[in-house]
Specification:
Chain lengths: 568, 216
């Protein structure tokens, strides 16, 4: 027992050292192997990735760069559109043609509904609370730290240990690890979070990340949840697509015993990062944000289709080598060509009823969060208790985090400067988009080309709440007897198919939402109060944390279990 | 490329296991490419590497499966243990926790491979002697108690990396020679090439070998 406690204390000590290293931006004894050798990779591309001496921009890339500039005006219109912009077919084509680098942050943020999600927090700033909680009690700090230091190390903003974007990535992942406690942290989450951090502030990246996980259209939760249920399902789906569309290659790969696990994780968890060169990677991520998870399958198929002739001539060794080393450097086709074909393929797949049926029939519970977010898992609670027992003072949030205070209007968010501001394109895009996020998605503008409707996560929460508040009988079951919020608290949502009327889903303003949330919030008070009890137990030394704990786990779509029901 | 259908006579299947961040992929990279990969991304899922070596005048192709280290990936990586002739179990000499977890890795390795699988313990990052957290002697003792082969290596400098992979192969080869490893057994992790193609239905990605390796 004692040794268990000792090892926990050691781990906490180690975690705190790590957190402090990020805060101070340095570490007494940085192992030199952890420092990226930037002198050798001294050519920097337009995305900020380093390349070795001798690298030069391909003609394709310089063309794209020019086009990027010529498109600025068209995109500016979207940004400035007062009533929000229509996510229509024309817009969709624009995205495939290429989101100008300068607007990428704005595009991600508006597509992922970051502004609304943030606005609909009703009990304080969740990101702020979660970073503070995570930095003190996350059981994943060591793992996250290990991975942060091997995420996009060839990118200029990630190359310095404990500095630049590494800080922001670390905090976003640590905060998320105590927010979505069903997952915590799974290797691979760092890739997506890092992409978002390249273009968004921490807090925005956090919410964008969160929405990618819980909004059904993306459903990334299922890719990272224990047992990887959605990876398994998508692996099967991709195999059946290959079998149907690329029969020869499918057979060949089978004969060569090419193991799908060597590529499906990279395809689906990281949206093809490390499978294609950076220029294409960003564009694929743009399309993913536009189309949702079906894009991953379309691109998976296209990936093999484009190289099927060559691959047919390769044995296993060469195939792996080709996929791991050649294609990430040079995809062999102009990005524009890949994009055009991808769009066609997405369309084609969408026309296939059987495909869509398979796509939209997730293994329900397994792929969605089943548990309240922000609850104290056993591992977290152990740490909170230990802090209390040992009178460890909790670490406050560092000043470099740009966390927006809830009350302040969002117009000028340029608070806080960063040593790394050069790469924070989000800033420039912000300046150009005072109206960011104000385009609520109204029914007419909904992604008409999407099979499933885009439901902002925060609004899902509303729906969940309503589904529970309707049948009164469901509520008394819940937790008065439970001493603390813990993972056993579950809400039986699936049992009540929620009827979602378009009018409710769309165009509800923030105040409307708050009203809707008000009643269910009280319904959850028993859970909430038990949460407070938990934290009272760990009083004294953790006071500062306790005070910042959100009083209700309700805000921000803590449960997205309703994926399925919303879809009915 | 050499004449004949194969320029090797055996295929040995290896698996590399161990906690996250101990340097599994770097060891593999050092062995196959003979260089250190400083910006090595973490492994998502599984990776595959291969190299042809020579043992007692026989050319042997090593097929090496490198796995993600995070605990929750074990559900995926477990299926790659089956049919492994060699398992390289890695810890980081500068992090005791990675050493403490060895017994659980060893349990997996023992339970999921066949009794003849050669398990080789590697203490990686031997170049960071100043930060050492696990002594050579205690690891050596652990290895002896559990009947494992053992070396401290450095994926960074390359020290002993070659030896770890080769010694494992030598031991496997010896097991074949003295008859303790039955090539015909399913999941022996070894395929004998020259006669009539693949043997056994080993799961986990052995080249079936009924096609001429492309030499285009």
């Amino acid at each position: 027992m004692a040794s268990n406690e000792d090892s926990l204390i050691n781990e906490i000590k180690r975690s705190r050292e790590i957190v402090k290293s990020y805060d101070s931006g340095s570490f007494a004894d940085i192992d030199e192997s952890e420092v990226f050798d930037s002198s050798y990779y001294n050519k920097i591309d337009r995305f900020g990735f380093r390349h070795p001496e001798g690298y030069s921009e391909t003609s394709d890339e310089s063309k794209t760069k020019k086009k990027d500039i010529s498109r600025l005006q068209k995109w500016d219109k979207y940004v400035k559109a007062k009533a929000g912009f229509r996510k229509d077919e024309k817009f969709r084509k624009r995205v495939y043609k290429g989101v100008p680098q300068r607007f990428r942050g704005w595009y991600w943020e508006s597509m992922l509904d970051v502004k609304n999600t943030k606005d609909q927090q009703i009990h304080g700033n969740v990101y702020k609370n979660m970073t503070e909680k995570g930095r003190n009690y996350s059981p994943y700090i060591d793992q996250i730290d290990k991975d942060v230091n091997r995420t996009f190390r060839s990118h200029t903003s990630f190359e310095k240990r404990y500095q630049g974007q590494q800080k922001h990535l670390f905090n976003v992942l640590v905060a998320y690890s105590v927010y979505n406690t069903e997952i915590g942290y799974t290797q691979g989450m760092n890739g997506i979070a890092a992409l978002l951090c390249m273009f968004l502030s921490d807090e925005d990246a956090f919410w964008a990340f969160s929405n990618l996980f819980t909004v059904e259209k993306y459903g990334m939760h299922g890719f990272f949840a224990l047992g990887f249920p959605k990876i398994e399902r998508f692996k099967e789906l991709l195999q059946s697509l290959l079998k149907k569309h690329l029969k020869k290659l499918y057979k060949h790969m089978k004969e060569m015993n090419i193991v799908a696990d060597t590529y499906v994780f990279k395809f689906f968890m990281a949206c093809f990062a490390h499978c294609v060169p950076p220029s294409l990677m960003f564009r694929l991520f743009d399309v993913f944000i536009l189309e949702g998870d079906k894009m991953l399958l379309a691109m998976g198929l296209l990936y093999f289709k484009k190289h099927s002739k060559k691959m047919l001539k390769m044995n296993d060794e060469k195939l792996y080598e080709y996929m791991n080393n050649t294609l990430p450097q040079n995809f062999g086709y102009p990005d524009d060509e890949v994009m055009t074909e991808l769009m066609d393929l997405v369309d084609e797949l969408q026309r296939s009823r059987t495909f869509i049926n398979k796509l939209t029939q997730p293994d329900g519970k397994k792929e969605c969060p089943n548990r309240f977010f922000m609850c104290n898992t056993e591992e977290i609670q152990k740490r909170i208790d230990c802090f209390e027992k040992m009178c460890i003072e909790s670490l406050p949030n560092p000043s470099y985090l740009r966390i927006e205070e809830k009350k302040s209007p969002t117009k000028s968010q340029k608070s806080g400067t960063d040593e790394n501001s050069a790469t924070r394109n989000s800033k420039s895009s912000r300046e150009m988009s005072p109206l960011q996020g104000q385009h609520s998605i109204d029914s007419a503008d909904e992604l008409s080309f999407s099979e499933r409707s885009y439901i902002p996560q925060s609004q899902q929460a509303v729906q969940i709440v309503r589904s529970n508040s309707q049948p009164k009988t469901a509520s008394p079951k819940k937790s008065p007897t439970k001493p603390a919020i813990n993972h056993t608290v579950q809400v039986e949502i699936e049992s009540q198919p929620v009827k979602v009327e378009k009018t409710n889903l769309n165009g509800s303003s923030v105040s409307d939402t708050d009203k809707k949330l008000a009643r269910p919030a009280s319904m959850y008070t028993n859970i909430t109060s038990s949460a407070d009890e938990t934290n009272v137990r760990s009083s004294h030394s953790v006071n500062s944390f306790r005070n910042s704990v959100p009083s209700s786990p309700l805000n921000n779509g803590l449960l997205s279990t309703s994926h399925k029901s919303l879809n009915d | 490329m050499a004449a004949g259908p194969y320029n090797y006579s055996y295929i040995f299947k290896y698996i590399i296991i161990g906690d996250m961040g101990v340097g599994k992929s770097c060891l593999l990279h050092q062995f196959t490419e003979k260089k250190f990969m400083a910006d090595c991304p973490h492994t998502i899922g599984v990776e595959f590497g291969t190299r042809i070596i020579e043992v007692a005048g026989q050319k042997i192709k090593l097929q090496i499966w490198d796995t993600a280290g995070q605990e929750r990936f074990r559900a995926v990586t477990r299926s790659y243990y089956r049919g492994a002739a060699g398992a390289l179990m890695v810890y980081d000499i500068t992090r005791r926790t990675t050493y403490n977890h060895l017994s659980s890795w060893l349990t997996d390795a023992r339970n999921l491979t066949n009794p003849n699988t050669v398990i080789f313990l590697i203490g990686n990052k031997s170049d960071l002697d100043a930060q050492r957290d696990v002594t050579y002697d205690e690891a050596k003792q652990f290895a002896e108690e559990n009947g494992l082969m053992f070396l401290e290596c450095s994926a960074k400098t390359g020290e002993n990396v070659e030896d770890a992979f080769l010694d494992t192969a030598k031991k496997i080869y010896k097991n074949i020679q003295d008859g303790s490893l039955d090539l015909n057994a399913a999941e022996s992790g070894v395929q004998h090439k020259p006669s009539n193609g693949p043997r056994g239905a080993n799961l986990g990605g052995e080249s079936s070998g009924n096609k001429d390796p492309c030499s285009c």
